Structure formats: C-alpha cells, structure tokens
Automatic annotation (TrEMBL):
It comes from the Bacteria. Belongs to the class-III pyridoxal-phosphate-dependent aminotransferase family. GO terms for molecular function: adenosylmethionine-8-amino-7-oxononanoate transaminase activity; pyridoxal phosphate binding. Pfam families: Aminotran_3 (PF00202). It comes from Chloroflexus aurantiacus (strain ATCC 29366 / DSM 635 / J-10-fl). Keywords: Aminotransferase, Pyridoxal phosphate, Transferase. One of its GO terms (biological process) is biotin biosynthetic process. This is Aminotransferase class-III. Transmembrane segments: none annotated.
C-alpha cells in the first residue's frame, strides 16, 4: 500500500493535469469518495462540493443505481460501434427520451464523448447545413467574450477567454467575438435601448460587418459558466433570436453546463422563451459518472442531413458515438432527475441560494451577486462604488479559494469571482453552510490583504 506522500509523488512524476503548471499543483487533493454533495479526500476530510465536480454531478455523488446501470449494460454489451449500419438499444432509447425533453423543434440527436466534441459537431453541422442548402460561403462563427465552449482547436477559437489562446496560436480562422452582455459591467452604447437589446445588437453589427452571406452561426451559453457565471438580461436572447432569423444565421445553444436541470429548467433557453437551431450538451446528461455528450438539431437541419446525395453525406463520426454503456447511464441519470423532481428542486433551492448569497452585499467588497437556478457567482471588487477590481498582485481570488477550502468548501474561483454550482440534491442546510463559509473566507482574505 503506497502512502499518501508516495501517491502524490507519483502524481507529480507521471500525470499531466488539465491547465497544468507546477505552481498550481503543489498540494493537490486526492479525492477518494463522495456522497450527495460531499466529497472526501485521501486524508478523510469532508468538503461540500461547491461546483458539482466540474459543473456536472447534478444528481450528487455515490449514486449506486448509476454504477449498476453501467455494470448491467457492460455485462450485456459494453461497446459496439454505432456507425451507420449499426445501432444499439440504449442509444435508440436515449435519443427517443431526449426528443421528449428538448426544445420542441429538436428531435434528432448525435452523441459524442463530451462538450468539446459537441462543439466541434455543432460547427461542422452548421457548415454542412449551409453547403447542403446552397449557401457554401456561410462558414464563419460568432461567439462571445467570457464564453467557454471547450479547448479543442475550433472550440478554443470560439472560447472567449484569452488565457486559453496564446500558447496554441494561431487559432482557427473564421471565428469572431462580440462582448458579453455581462449585466454588472456592460456599457450600453445606445442608452435609448435596454441593456439586453443593446448587447444583443452587437451580434447584428458583427454579422453586417462580416457579411451575412459569410456567417454560419452564433454560439452562446444561456448562462455563461466558466467566464464567471453570467446570466444575461431577460430580453437579450429574444433579440438574439430575431437577429439570427433576420440574417439567416443559425443559433447554437451551448447547454453543456445549463442542460439537465442546472438552471431550474431542463434547458437554459427555456427561461427566455426561444428555441435554438442546434443545442449541444454533455456534463449533466450522465452527471459525470461516465463521459457522454452530443448535439440535437432542428427538424430543418435534420431534413438537410437526410436529403443530400450519398457522396455529400454528413461525414462526421466518433468511435464512441452512441456508446451503449454511456447511454444506459444517461437513461438512469435522467430517470433520477425525473423521479426526484430535481429540475423543480434546482429552481427552488437555487432561489434560496441566491437570496442567501445576496446577504453578502453587507460585506464591503462584494460587488455583484448573480445566478440562475443552481448556478451563482460572487464578484469581489476593491471598490463597490466604482466597480474597480482588486489589483492582480493582491491574488484575492486565490486567497479566498484557500480560505474556503480550509473551511470545508471546495469550489472554483475565476479571477475574483467565486463560482458556485453545487449538486441539485444540495440541502438547504448545506446552502447555509456554503454562504457562511464564503462570508468568513471573504472577511479573512480582506483582512489579510489590508494588513
């Protein structure tokens, strides 16, 4: 039996982690167990999981029925290719189930292994569609700053977080960014319009500037997640849909984080009363118990896929598309969400969480508290009157994260914004604990910064 120190040494010697750099991995946690909203490290210490693993463990940790679903399917048929000419029962049943849950116009699904593959599938499908209908010049994609769509090459090129770019340049050509609606900091250039409409109109400006005949699609998260949990203004997406329709541009909804109940609805754009042309998903479809993602396409896009001649077919594929075991786990996961009413629970507990977090405004450096369902962000600033941020040298976000971890809350900080997305099964008592830990951690950090 290796000691904890030996395991950590082996980790340093053999494992490359996402976003790796030795300065960020000096004292990593080794996670060994989880139950509900609690995760346990190798030293036996328990923490509230403030980010559902990585925005994905919606039904909570330790769900034996998901392990059993995987085991039963593996014993019968762990894997077989779902390339054209083959299929399997779990993939068929999952696609049928998703057609019931998704937006009414989206009834056909392609499966991937995760979010970045789903983004790539969306982009390729959008380009395919425009070629299939005789508009082959429509190849560009518009996305938003602070948006996150994955870090494969095209997905990274759409991602609007510049830290991901420099060491992998040049990015894929044909990707354009507009500003985020970011209600706390958006500067409205047209004050006679609402902030939401003004922010959406940045899309129209970009389409006109690039040329409508060259733009294939606009991709957006209903709530920006990794950029700092940023819900848009209520009228933002209605205007976005109008612009996309007017200029004949597809709307891709990135539901990788917001899907499967996270926002208090099955899918994020339901809050805003519109439907996308393509919806991509991952994370919550299996609650992270096994990798699975995918895209759903509107009926008109599916018709294009079906109607082209064989030599122009949708030549897109992954080895693990329609993986029987992953699809079986997804079906069991969705059954839990439905049986336990977790979508409605996310709405109710999420409302409570946001109300409790808004009490943090009593602290002098809490600039903005925002959220939707079981997603929230708490942005810390040096001056709440001017919204001036702390200097980067103060390392406020990193310090707050260390304080929260020491007090039993493990979550993510983006810059100086504390991100929260606890499992949908998180209790009211645990929400109270989260808020208290955050308050204590902010106070301790500010005291240290000012010392």
């Amino acid at each position: 039996m290796n000691t904890l120190q030996e395991q950590l040494q082996a980790d340093h010697e053999y494992l490359i982690h996402p976003l790796t750099h030795p300065t960020a991995h000096q004292n990593p946690k080794i996670w060994v167990a989880g139950r509900g909203s609690i995760v346990i490290d190798a030293e036996g210490r328990e923490y509230i999981d403030g980010l559902s693993g990585l925005w994905n463990v919606n039904v909570g940790h330790g769900r034996a029925e998901l392990a059993e679903a995987a085991c039963n399917q593996m014993k019968q048929l762990a894997y077989y290719s779902a390339y054209v000419g083959s299929t399997n029962l779990p993939a068929i049943e999952l696609a049928r189930k998703l057609s019931e849950l998704f937006y009414p116009s989206i009834n056909h699904f392609f499966f991937t292994s995760g979010g970045a593959e789903s983004t790539e599938s969306s982009f390729k499908t959008a380009r395919f569609y425009w070629k299939a209908v005789g508009k082959p010049e429509k190849v560009k994609f518009i996305s938003r700053m602070k948006g996150y769509h994955g870090v494969t090459m095209a997905a990274m090129s759409a991602t609007g977080l510049p830290a991901y770019w420099p060491m992998f340049e040049p990015r894929v050509p044909g990707f354009i960014h507009i500003e985020s609606p970011y209600p706390y900091r958006f500067v409205n250039p047209t004050p006679h319009l609402s902030d939401g409409v003004a922010a959406a109109n940045l899309l129209e400006e970009a389409i006109v500037r690039e040329g409508p005949d060259t733009v294939a699609a606009f991709i957006a998260e209903p709530v920006q997640g990794a950029g700092g949990v940023i819900p848009p203004q209520d009228d933002y997406f209605k205007r976005i849909r109008e612009i996309c329709d007017y200029y004949d541009v597809l709307l891709i909804s990135d539901e990788v984080i917001t899907g499967f109940g996270r926002t208090g609805r099955w899918f994020g754009l339901e809050h805003y009363g519109i439907e996308p042309d393509i919806a991509q998903f991952a994370k919550g479809i299996t609650s992270g118990y096994i990798p699975l993602g995918g895209i759903g396409v509107s009926d008109r896009i599916y018709e294009a896929i079906q109607s082209v001649p064989p030599e122009q077919r949708w030549m897109h594929a992954f080895t693990y598309s329609g993986h029987p075991t992953a699809c079986a786990v997804a079906l069991a996961n969705i059954a839990i969400i439905e049986r336990e009413g977790l979508v409605q629970r996310a709405a109710e507990v999420g409302d409570y969480m946001l109300r409790r977090l808004q009490e943090l405004y009593a602290l002098p450096h809490v600039g903005n508290v925002r959220g939707k369902g079981m997603m929230a962000g708490i942005e810390l600033v040096a001056d709440t009157a001017t919204k001036a941020p702390f200097p980067a040298s103060a390392n406020v976000g990193v310090r707050v994260q260390k304080e929260m971890t020491a007090r039993g809350l493990f979550t993510r900080v983006v810059g100086d914004t504390i991100c929260l997305a606890p499992p949908l099964v998180t209790t009211y008592e645990q929400i109270d604990q989260i808020v208290q830990i955050i308050a204590d951690s902010i106070e301790a950090t500010v005291a240290a910064v000012k010392a």
